[in-house]
Amino acid sequence: MTKPLSIAQQTLTILDALENELKSLQLWQSEPPAPSALQSSQPFASDTLDFHQWLQFVLIPTLQTMIEQRQALPNAIAISPMAIEVWRGSLRDYRQVILQLKALDELLDGHHARH
């Protein structure tokens, strides 16, 4: 019998799928933004980054680092509503990215209670 995947393993699987979706939509950048753009204090760095840049350069590496360092993952996140807002006029085009973010939201929402 196989052991169920841990929250960390499930998170990494979703992050990989998210990265693949961003690449398939040609939203994955080979060059990072200027360091100053990453210093924003606004939610999702909305004043300095496009949402897909925030996903690539803030969300994905932050969660990966937390997992690598065995830190507690956030247990109350809501990223998919922002994605829906950002891509409101083209939801069909970004459907798979939004679904991955929704899966991440649902996985991490209250997960500490499930350990």
List keywords for this structure.
4 helices, 115 residues, mainly alpha, globular
What does it look like?
By secondary structure, the protein is mainly α. The chain has one domain: YqcC-like (de novo design (two linked rop proteins), Up-down Bundle), CATH 1.20.1440.40. Helix content is 50%, strand content 0%. It has helices at 7-24, 51-68, 80-86, 95-108. Helix 1 (7-24) packs antiparallel against helix 2 and helix 3 (80-86) runs antiparallel to helix 4. It is globular.
SS element count, helices: 4
Poorly predicted tracts of residues:
none
Look at the helices and sheets and give the structural class.
Answer: mainly alpha
Oligomer type? single chain
CATH homologous superfamily heading = YqcC-like
Q: Residue share in helices?
A: 40-55%
Helix-strand sequence:
HHHH
E-strand count: 0
Percent in strands: under 5%
Count of structural domains: 1
Largest sheet: none
The CATH class turns out to be: Mainly Alpha
Distance between the termini: 20 Å
- Looking at the structure, what is the overall shape? globular
Mean of residue pLDDT values: 92
CATH topology: de novo design (two linked rop proteins)
Q: Radius of gyration, rounded?
A: 14 Å
